[in-house]
Design a protein that fits this description.
mainly beta, globular, 26 strands, about 550 residues, 18-stranded mixed β-sheet, two-stranded antiparallel sheet
Length: about 550
Amino acid sequence: MFGTANANPQARDRGTLYRLERQTYISGALDFVSQIGRHHELKVGGDVRRYTARRFEIEPWVMRLTEDGTPTDPKSIDAVTFATQGEYTGYGFDLYGNEIDDDGFSQGAVGNRVPVDGPKNPVFTAVYVQDKIEYSDLIINAGLRLDIFDTDDVRLKDPGNPEVNDVTGLISEDAFEEVDPFKQVSPRLGISFPVTERTKFYAQYGKFIQMPELRNIYHGNFGLSDQITSGGNFFVNTIGFGLDPIKTTSYELGFSQQVGKVAALDVTGFYRNDKGQITVVREESTGPNVATYARLANADFTTTKGVELRLRLRRINRLQAQINYTLTQAEGSGSGELSFRGAIDQATPTPTLINPLDFSQTHKGSVILDYRFGKNDGGPVLQQLGTNVIFSFNSGHPYTKIALNQLGQSEAYDAGVDYMLDSRTREAAEPINSSTTPWNFNVDLRLDKSFNVTGDISATIYSRVTNLFNTRNVLNVYQLTGDDDNDGVITDPQFGEELRNTNGGEDYAELYNAINIQNGQSYFSQLTNTAFTNTVQRRADLWGHPRQIWLGLEISY
């Protein structure tokens, strides 16, 4: 990830972010089950998990400070200069990426020293009680769960004007306060009973909570102080502090219908509301100590509703089948943590309209066929031979087409995707998420043969093929064109000519097409291997994987 632009075309001024994260945990759980009389099965239990979280971030371009005849050891640079120019932030590592276990300081051979934060040690504890009540055909599952989240975190007492140390330029320790452990009791209720001999009704209700990702909760004081006091451009690795858990309320209602002697149909309607989701907000400065800055907060929500259908056919003449289909609608005002970064960066109002979300898939389904010979069936060659075929499909996901008004700070390699990261160079060409990526279709195949080795030992030889027909499924598209094979920049009369004139004419265009258009390399590297992945938490691929073949052997005893 280090390099110069001349030696490595992917190494650009103030380019790729270097990130090192390590999370380990120790956990324990205890569960107790007791049958109380004929009608009650009582379950009581709990678990506890203690994490050790470490994170180190720096911009590799800072190593250029050691070039041009100066010593190559980064410790030869003044520590404050190294940390500031590299936009260092982290905890559990010192300024140079070495693990530490306590708060302290990093200092080079010359100059000042930089305070560094020790690892974070959040502890998550849960205790639950559940009673399964059975009266004839009526089954009720009722329970309560107590969650205690001690995040080992601090927050600013006055986010708009925290106290800053005049000497170090860092936020004073007195400006922080510890975050109290979060506690919540969540009810769970499930009920099922037969309506007829062939029909069963069921319903479920529950409340759930989940902490945001640890990377969003913590920030070292040096990086936090840098963002809060400097202001200016939007920081993609946005700070977060004092974040609460995300709260989910879930409802399910459905029935199971026996169809003849060979099939069963399950129909389930669901509704889920997620509150307190993480998004970026603008913290206005209320005093002279800090600039207006962006931070993460529990300020967004998502509503998901839909219907699931499942038809199960029991095995007849060696063939078993299952058909699944889900109709879903996921809506909200923002699809990810940094969905509002454009509005925050430009100091404009954040969206309030409800729109389809990036990850919503209206239609999704599969057909599973399993044809299998049993023991002593089909002779010595065919017995215990089976094949499984899965056909799956989905209707793509929403996206927003945009119009490009300038190339901005893009360079030769990333000109076709930079506008997806830099909102200053684009504007929406339609209402948010009005367009949809293409449908996807896929077939997976497994062929296996089981046999007895000796005594209680058996073996299975198998071959598994994913994407059997090597279909090129489009997962994402360029927002400028809505295509996966045309980014709309290199072919644009104005911008394409500007890029060719600046970077080598038609030779550059041929190289650009080979690397970025035919192979999608810039899309993948720029939208995955940067802090932008905090927005979507996924690999940024244009296409699904090609055909893959596995051969294996399983031993059972």
